[in-house]
Design goal:
By secondary structure, this protein is mainly α. It contains 13 helices and six strands. Helix 10 packs antiparallel against helix 11 and helix 10 runs parallel beside helix 13.
């Protein structure tokens, strides 16, 4: 409901941004894309579109206005499937109950310095490693870290990707099964369009399949989230130390040849940490996968620190 208001009130839009930033925020987007063309829409300055974009996320983002059938209205998702050799129009109704969400709840980047073309980096697959391979192949860098000088990949919100790696997806559930559980009124069964956390409606979401008490199910969720958070905090500490120690090495005369393998490891470690941290609900959607990714992040940060300790020893630098 507040998608347009929120994005316009962020400090980000005080600096030049492309209209790509509107892609997931408004039912007006498909109309404006048809009016200007997809590529031209993305390229236009964000503030130029203020008169065209007025309505927040609504029915027609997911539904055909004549038949009410689920549909895909954002080209980036269709294009990502096409590049994988998949025809999204062949998706089942159950698959569509997740794909309408995957139009926006995904990892993405703006391709091209001028084009700013919304692109989902799924050409090689959905895993954190697959997406990293894609970014490496196109030499994508979101920013260079101001301390370590590592070329960083910034994760957005890889919700669909992580969900696909969890047990609920494996069992054939869709996003809507838990976030929009079925309800009945007057003998008519339909999905609850008050989209929210399943924990706010455990009886209609979780307990349709699980026979445990609400308290037990709630504790199951929190237990998994707490364990992933604990790992995330370990990964964070390792990563912070690697960035600071890298800066110390640079400050004491380290050269690019010495630092190249260090920066590559830091890039990989931060990408993995961020892939989990930036996801919404990833710690429950796929807790085992999140733990694996964070374990890999910690390993890479500590490998970088081992290399840095060798460089710092040669520089006669002692770190507190």
């Amino acid at each position: 409901y507040y998608a347009i208001k929120d994005i316009r009130n962020t400090f980000r839009v005080d600096v030049p941004q492309p209209s790509t930033c509107y892609a997931c925020k408004s039912t007006d987007v498909p109309r404006v894309m048809n009016k200007f063309g997809i590529s031209e829409f993305y390229k236009k300055p964000f503030k130029e579109m203020g008169g065209e974009i007025a309505n927040a996320i609504g029915c027609q983002d997911c539904h055909d206005s004549k038949t009410m059938n689920l549909r895909i209205t954002r080209p980036a998702l269709v294009e990502a499937f096409d590049r994988q050799g998949k025809d999204i129009t062949k998706s089942t109704h159950q698959e569509m109950r997740s794909l309408v969400c995957a139009q926006c709840h995904v990892e993405y980047y703006f391709k091209g310095k001028e084009d700013k073309y919304l692109t989902f980096p799924w050409d090689k697959g959905f895993t954190v490693e697959n997406i990293e391979q894609y970014y490496d192949s196109v030499k994508h860098v979101d920013f260079v870290h101001s301390l370590s000088k590592a070329p960083i990949l910034k994760a957005q919100h890889p919700d669909y990707e992580i969900f696909k790696m969890g047990i609920h997806s494996e069992r054939g559930l869709a996003c809507a099964d838990c976030h929009m559980p079925y309800k009945s009124t007057g003998g008519v069964k339909f999905t609850d369009h008050h989209i929210q956390s399943p924990l706010n409606n455990i009886s209609n979401s979780c307990q349709v399949c699980h026979r445990e008490t609400e308290t037990t199910l709630l504790n199951n969720v929190y237990d998994r989230q707490d364990k992933v958070l604990e790992l995330s905090q370990i990964a964070t500490r390792s990563l912070v130390k690697a960035h600071i120690e890298a800066k110390t090495a640079w400050d004491n005369g380290a050269n690019e040849e010495q630092m190249k393998p260090v920066l590559e490891l830091i890039r990989q470690a931060q990408w993995r940490w961020d892939f989990v941290s930036a996801s919404h609900g990833g710690s429950f959607h796929a807790p085992l996968e999140c733990a694996r990714i964070l374990g890999n992040s910690i390993e890479r940060s500590e490998k970088a620190r081992v290399l840095l300790s060798e460089i710092l020893t040669k520089q006669n630098v002692k770190l507190p």
